[in-house]
Structure to design on (458 residues):
């Protein structure tokens, strides 16, 4: 790693790397995005690469749906798009080898997690590439995958928990909120998540700050592994036992151009392991902090992912990443023995709503100092922020049918829609509790809105 600007994150600059970068540029010319941009460009030194213009998300969008594709459609097996928070959609076309490279890199980094006989509950959403990587890992001998994507009505949260119990799954793979929700459902059923036998939580796709990692590790008695990557770049790295995300230098060449002397900067990626939609100096928009040497002994460069520049919050006159705010909130929630919290950013303060049965005050004093702004901690009863009762009564989804035999016992259906989905009828008691929570939330919203209007009027 060099300290000069732009800094490059590579173990050493060798001939192999230069050849790989040159091959990426050559492949990239196959796409409309790079055809003219990279005409006659050859990479013979790292400076040749560093002299090329950055590729922005706007560039990808402007290139159009097929503009990022560098191989004939016949060679592609997977299409993906990012649903950016800014509403911009970027496209990515991947070959079978592209997916296989990311999958085998994950397996190689975590042979103890993904191995024969190990059962993995795959809760990544179907549209997201990690869902498919987990399936590929299993298909290649890295365990038994249960394809149970969330945001999916045929596997609602309670069923996901039941799948873990029934199969004895050791790994839950999914978005960071997944083990929070499953943990609450377990708790509501009188189960201690730590006794379920899950030893690994493999999480990615959203901020996973340290305090939340520690809380989840303790609640589940499991190790937390962070998966880092993006739809455009595919896998960039996974975290080690020390919690550092180690970049996979065989799949991507990473630079952190930034101010000299700072350890933070924007991550710029040139893909080495993608044929379908190769990227040259792609500005990920992620800000990372470099970890010079990791205690785990892994020599690959380490980063802590702070978040997207576009999502930076201006608080108390200084910029804060959502992950920092969520980290502080998770710490307060943990001090109140809870994993369930919700943060509301208001003009004059940060409101941290925490589901808890406890009433200590120490945690509330610790928080304002960390964030540098006024913080209000609001304790709310269990079920107010994450209504486990209603989650457990999610609709029943069936294979679509166009015929119903009313002479037989069972469901008497009159429409195609009724055949596909059945909403549960809550009991009176459940309905009352749901109504009470809804009214209480509405009242809180009105009160906050009024104080917001007053502060705006002032
Ligand atoms: Zn490490």
């Amino acid at each position: 790693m060099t300290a000069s600007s732009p800094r490059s994150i590579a173990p050493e600059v060798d001939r192999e790397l230069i050849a790989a970068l040159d091959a990426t540029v050559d492949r990239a010319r196959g796409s409309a995005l790079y055809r003219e941009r990279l005409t006659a460009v050859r990479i013979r030194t790292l400076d040749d690469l560093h002299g090329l213009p950055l590729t922005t998300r706007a560039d990808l969008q402007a290139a159009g749906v097929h503009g990022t594709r560098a191989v004939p459609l016949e060679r592609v097996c997977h299409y993906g798009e990012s649903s950016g928070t800014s509403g911009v959609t970027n496209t990515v076309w991947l070959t079978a080898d592209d997916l296989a490279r990311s999958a085998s890199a994950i397996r190689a980094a975590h042979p103890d997690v993904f191995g024969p006989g190990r059962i993995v509950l795959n809760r990544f959403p179907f549209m997201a590439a990690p869902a498919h990587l987990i399936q590929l890992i299993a298909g290649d001998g890295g365990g038994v995958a249960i394809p149970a994507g969330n945001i999916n009505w045929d596997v609602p949260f309670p069923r996901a928990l039941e799948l873990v119990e029934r199969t004895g799954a050791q790994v839950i793979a999914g978005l960071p909120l997944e083990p929070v929700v499953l943990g609450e459902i377990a708790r509501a059923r009188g189960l201690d998540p730590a006794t379920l036998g899950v030893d690994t939580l493999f999480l990615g796709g959203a901020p996973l700050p340290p305090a939340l990692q520690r809380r989840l590790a303790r609640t589940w008695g499991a190790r937390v592994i962070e998966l880092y990557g993006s739809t455009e770049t595919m896998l960039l790295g996974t975290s080690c036992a020390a919690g550092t995300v180690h970049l996979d230098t065989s799949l991507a060449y990473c630079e952190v151009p930034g101010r000299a002397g700072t350890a933070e900067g924007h991550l710029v990626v040139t893909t080495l392991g993608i044929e379908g939609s190769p990227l040259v100096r792609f500005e990920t928009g992620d800000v990372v902090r470099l970890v010079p040497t990791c205690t785990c002994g892994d020599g690959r460069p380490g980063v802590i992912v702070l978040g997207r520049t576009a999502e930076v919050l201006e608080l108390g006159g200084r910029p804060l990443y959502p992950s920092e705010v969520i980290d502080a909130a998770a710490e307060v929630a943990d001090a109140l023995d809870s994993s369930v919290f919700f943060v509301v950013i208001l003009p004059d303060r940060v409101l941290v709503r925490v589901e808890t049965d406890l009433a200590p005050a120490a945690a509330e004093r610790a928080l304002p100092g960390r964030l540098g702004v006024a913080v209000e901690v609001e304790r709310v009863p269990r079920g107010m922020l994450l209504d486990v009762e209603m989650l457990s009564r999610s609709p029943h989804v069936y294979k679509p049918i166009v015929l119903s035999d009313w002479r037989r016992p069972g469901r008497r259906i009159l429409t195609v829609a009724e055949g596909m989905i059945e909403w549960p009828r809550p009991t009176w008691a459940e309905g009352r509790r749901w109504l009470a929570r809804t009214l209480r939330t509405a009242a809180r919203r009105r009160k906050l809105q009024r104080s917001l209007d007053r502060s705006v009027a002032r």
